[in-house]
């Protein structure tokens, strides 16, 4: 999928994709993140022929497990089902890491759904601690990478 392009965008542009891929039950709305509209937040979308097929968000957020004054949290990582396993998620993460390095950010973490752990490991993330449940969503691992 060489024609897939990655773009920075406003949070509301990726709400439909986030909602369709990450909402926990049909007819429920995946809520916007509190940091969505902060100037420091970054939203990326992957596009194929003018259709949005993937997204992620990067927000300032401190997790107490990590002894780092500056931390960026990856949220809302999703690729449409029909477009998965074609390298689009990896392309989004690579683009995100480039932007963060340019901004001198050195630490990225996320609450990873357990099913997505192999994906995050393939992108250079490591787990921290044991698996835990997030109410209404399911099992997760805390994951991180040094940039
Ligand atoms: C997780 C997700 C974003 C991955 O996106 P993707 O575009 O399919 O991932 P990529 O094609 O870039 O995968 C890159 C590598 O990650 C690994 N990987 C990705 N998905 C995997 C899976 N289901 N099982 C095992 N390894 C996987 C592989 O090493 C893959 O490389 P390969 O296909 O050459 O073997 C996508 O599956 C998704 O949107 N899932 C549903 C929503 C979700 O769970 N989001 C995460 C919330 S924490």
Q: Roughly what percent helix?
A: 10-25%
Please state how the strands of the largest beta sheet are arranged side by side. Answer: 1-2-3-4-5-7-6
The ordered string of helix (H) and strand (E) elements is EHEEEHEHEE
Highest CATH level, the class? Alpha Beta
Ends: how far apart? 26 Å
Task: Briefly note the CATH topology name.
Answer: Aminopeptidase
Which hetero ligands occur in this complex?
A: coenzyme A
Question: Radius of gyration in whole Å, from Cα?
Answer: 15 Å
Number of domains: 1
Uncertain segments of ≥5 residues (pLDDT<50)? Answer: none
Q: Shape, please?
A: globular
By CATH, the superfamily comes out as Gcn5-related N-acetyltransferase (GNAT)
* Mean pLDDT over all positions: 95
What does the main sheet amount to? 7 strands, mixed
Query: How does CATH name the architecture?
Result: 3-Layer(aba) Sandwich
Percent range for β-strand residues: 35-45%
